[in-house]
Amino acid sequence: MEYIASEKGDSTENRDPNSIANGTSKSSTENKSILESAHIEAPAESAACTSETTEDSEPELCEIPEQIEFTVVFNKAKHDITFAYDATVVDLKAHLERICGVPQSAQKLIIKGMAKDNMTLRQSGVQKGGKVMLVGSKMDDILAVKSAQKELSEERASSQSSKEPLCMQKIHRKVLDKGIPPDVMPGIKGVKEPLPPVPLSGMLNKHGGKVRLTFKHEQDQLWIGTKERTEKLAMASIKSITSEPIKEHEEYHIMGLQLGPTEASRYWVYWVPAQYIEAIKDAVLGVWQLF
């Protein structure tokens, strides 16, 4: 006998008597089978989800390095820095070069003493909210120092050459080689005399021109006269006076009047009678210069 299922599904009346007798139906058996199949496949699906989740979350698994906030002090200026705690000191120096303008090679970082380049900030003892001292010079300052060193080197070289007697130096030889001026006042070696009542004349300047020195004691002035003009100098404006005897003509001296702060400001006078040198120094600088 055949049994026909209704469109609405198997009713109790339409069920196979054998299935009813067994207390189960074909439909329930199929449902159970489907459920079991679903339970079996679930782990695979779950695994797939886990795999997808893992793949999607890989960027999230890359942890952001621990950051630390601190202050770098350089030349009284403060810079708030946030940096990786496990980065090295040399990494921080490279960062500070862009901020402070101090070349990395010229930097010294003071944390707990001098920080070593290969140590991390954590190992160096950087503390949250703490201070790191940056010691160093900017490139402009370094160049300025190099320039100053060059000038100092040149000055030393000049100083060494100045140890050579004045009369042997090239800048003076070109005047001395002209010989003793015919109208210069007679010089006397090894004698000290007071200044004469008349100007000292017949001497030469660095250009080889005639020079006359007039001492105006009442006005506290020294007049330096040339063919072109007369310079009236306050004696107090003359910083120092240097002199040396001329080799083979020791009765005459080369004399330099320093008119400014450096030796370059010296006004040179040639063929000054030796007996008046000390009197000239006393008149211009005062007797107190000897003490």
From TrEMBL:
Boundaries of every Ubiquitin-like domain copy: 68-141
Source organism superkingdom: Eukaryota
Bias (Basic and acidic residues) ranges: 1-16
Molecular function (Gene Ontology), one example: RNA binding
Biased composition (Polar residues): 17-34
Residues in coiled coil: none
SUPFAM superfamilies, sorted: Ubiquitin-like
Region (Disordered): 1-58
Residues making up the signal peptide according to the UniProt record: none
Pfam family, one: ubiquitin
CDD domains for this protein: Ubl_UBFD1
InterPro entries named among the record's database cross-references: UBFD1, UBFD1_C, Ubiquitin-like_dom, Ubiquitin-like_domsf
Protein name according to UniProt: Ubiquitin-like domain-containing protein
Source species: Spodoptera exigua (Beet armyworm)
